[in-house]
């Protein structure tokens, strides 16, 4: 994942000169920043890691920018003060925007339970269908290792040899079971099977499909731990309509589920790594219907759909996402940074826009999460995340 947050700067003149730098770090841990999509600009440099092409960008800088500042009103150009309530241009509505919460919010952060009772009352989601037999949520917590086995830089799933990675998964499962025995852990592996690319490639779609042999290998690892498998799509300039049939043969298995990443959905044009992509509720509803049809056709237990999110504009019209008893939707907060920064993002993009279930991403690299948010702090959030992704 991650352009992992765009920031509104208090210096609009600098922004106009820089054309608003957007960064991506889901598939790379370090490198140089990538400029905005200006006419005649060169495509971002790409690193070949094992056999995966990865845009070279600076995730540490993206983490620094992962704040709620994009919900703040910009100061007027004449420098006079402005009230903290204003129009939320990211959401395209007239919702008053609270000022940045920041590191001083501490224990009174509204992402925590009991701080903003009105916001707390939105969860659990009132119109959610009751879980069907075979549903995993909300009875269990999913703990998933994320990445691609062909790259050590895209996440923990590929960072270590398989045996070592699986031992680390065992330890993570045990740790979560110890801190919250009320929600026994369902382990999972979350593999990126369609990787966004900074180059168009043979398809011209700025994405690379990985072969079935790789997916089967990771599926075998998951089976060895009685774990779920999530197959994740970064569609680039392709679409869910074009890519979902390609992985249907895996999704018909009862223990295989789906992840989709709006950051790399360039439906409005652009090159992955140059700008943050987006999905609308209509796109998410399409993916949900696709899964629901498979459940009905093949008599499967309910599927889980994980939607990554770290900016307001990354998912538009979230209130229009339709819930289906055959599909459990997780909105996964996958930004990074210090704990206060991640709480801000969780509050802004997950808690304030309820869909169904909530997720939280942890990074294993301290340059991304510094310091990491503790499990105890995560359990103080409301809603409590029931999907934990480790990258």
From TrEMBL:
Name used for this protein in its record: Lipoprotein
Region (Disordered): 63-109
Domain of life from the UniProt record: Bacteria
Keywords linked to the UniProt accession: Plasmid
Organism: Gemmatirosa kalamazoonensis
Basic and acidic residues bias locations: 79-91
């Amino acid at each position: 994942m991650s352009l992992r947050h765009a920031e509104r700067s208090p210096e609009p003149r600098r922004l106009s000169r820089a054309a608003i730098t957007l960064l991506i770090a889901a598939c790379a841990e370090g490198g140089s920043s990538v400029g905005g999509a200006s006419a005649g600009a060169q495509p971002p440099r790409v690193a070949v890691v094992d056999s995966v092409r990865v845009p070279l960008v600076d995730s540490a800088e993206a983490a620094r920018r992962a704040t709620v500042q994009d919900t703040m009103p910009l100061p007027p150009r004449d420098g006079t003060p402005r009230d903290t309530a204003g129009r939320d241009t990211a959401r395209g509505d007239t919702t008053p925007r609270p000022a940045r919460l920041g590191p001083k919010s501490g224990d009174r952060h509204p992402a925590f339970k009991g701080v903003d009772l009105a916001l707390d009352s939105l969860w659990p989601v009132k119109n959610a269908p009751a879980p069907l037999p075979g549903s995993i949520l909300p009875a269990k917590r999913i703990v998933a290792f994320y990445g691609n086995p062909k790259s050590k830089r895209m996440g923990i799933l590929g960072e270590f040899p398989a045996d070592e990675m699986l031992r680390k998964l065992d330890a993570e499962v045990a740790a979560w079971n110890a801190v919250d025995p009320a929600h026994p852990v369902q382990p999972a592996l979350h593999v990126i099977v369609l990787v966004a690319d900074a180059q168009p490639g043979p398809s011209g779609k700025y994405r690379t499909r990985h072969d079935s042999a790789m997916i089967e290998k990771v599926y075998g690892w998951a089976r060895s731990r009685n774990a779920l498998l999530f197959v994740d799509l970064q569609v680039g300039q392709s679409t869910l309509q074009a890519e979902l049939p390609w992985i249907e043969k895996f999704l018909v298995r009862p223990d295989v589920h789906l992840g989709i990443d709006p950051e790399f959905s360039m439906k409005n044009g652009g090159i992955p790594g140059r700008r943050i992509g987006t999905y609308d509720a209509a796109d998410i509803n399409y993916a949900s219907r696709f899964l629901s049809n498979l459940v009905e056709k093949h008599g499967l237990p309910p599927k889980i759909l994980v939607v990554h999110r770290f900016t307001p504009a990354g998912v538009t019209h979230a209130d229009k996402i339709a819930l289906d008893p055959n599909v459990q939707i997780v909105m996964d907060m996958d930004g990074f940074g210090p704990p206060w920064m991640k709480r801000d993002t969780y509050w802004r993009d997950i808690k304030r826009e309820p869909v169904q279930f909530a997720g939280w991403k942890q990074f294993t690299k301290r340059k991304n999460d510094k310091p990491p948010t503790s499990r105890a702090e995560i359990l103080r959030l409301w809603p409590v995340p029931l999907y934990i992704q480790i990258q």
